[in-house]
Amino acid sequence: MNAVVLNEKLEKSGDVALPESFANIHPHNLYLYVKSYAAGVRANTASTKTRSEVSGGGKKPWQQKGGGRARAGSTRSPIFVGGGVVFGPKPNRNYDQKVNKKQKKLALKHALAEKAANGKLFITDSCVVESGKTKDAAAVVKATGAKDALIVKELIDDKTYLAFRNLKNAYVVEANELNAYLAAAYTSIVMEKAVWEKLTNEG
Fold first, then answer.
1. What is the helix (H) or strand (E) element at residue 14, kind and residue range?
2. Whole-structure pTM over 0.85, yes or no?
């Protein structure tokens, strides 16, 4: 598996091989991380009222005996329409799923290896749009030959941020924001050489 090296003109100038540590990683590591990431960003706003929180129901619906019906003490009971909900969702639920550091690294490596296998992992010395223009940023995405691209920079400069911010098919992140979910979500990845060297040197 090789990553494509791009020159300043966004043209292919060579290849760089992925380290052996990126090979033969079980995809289940990526599955676990994506599952954990998705659980962590859940809005967690679903909320239902129990019988103690529903308004009304102060008066007994009908007399205890003589009506031929089952006894009832309040219309807030879950058996009544408009009553409380039994075991309904509450916003205090914790959806977090733990993934250890080793699995996170393996997940990211697998996601990058998949991009490299498809020829959609690109390494460039620097990805800076000095003009700050969206059309120049779009040229970076076009150079990948993919429908969308994740741009990974060591540090995001103002001009590059302005250039990419209005593109729906591109997203710019700094090195410390890169994770397996983002790497898997985008069709192609354009990464600065400094970020790539840091990833590969970490083993």
1. strand 12-17
2. no
Confirm or reject CATH 3.40.50.1820 for domain 2-42+96-201, answering yes or no: no
Radius of gyration of the chain (CA): 27
Q: Which residues of 16-33 are buried (b: 16+ CB within 10 A; e: fewer)?
A: eebeeebeebeeebbebb
In tens digits, what is the pLDDT along the chain, a chain of 203 residues?
Answer: 889 998 888 888 889 999 999 999 999 999 999 999 999 998 889 999 999 999 988 889 999 999 999 999 999 999 999 999 999 999 988 999 999 999 999 999 999 999 999 999 999 998 999 999 999 999 999 999 999 999 999 999 999 999 999 999 999 999 999 999 999 999 999 999 999 999 888 65
Domain with CATH 3.40.1370.10 in the chain: 2-42+96-201
Q: Which residues are bridge partners to 174 per DSSP? A: 153
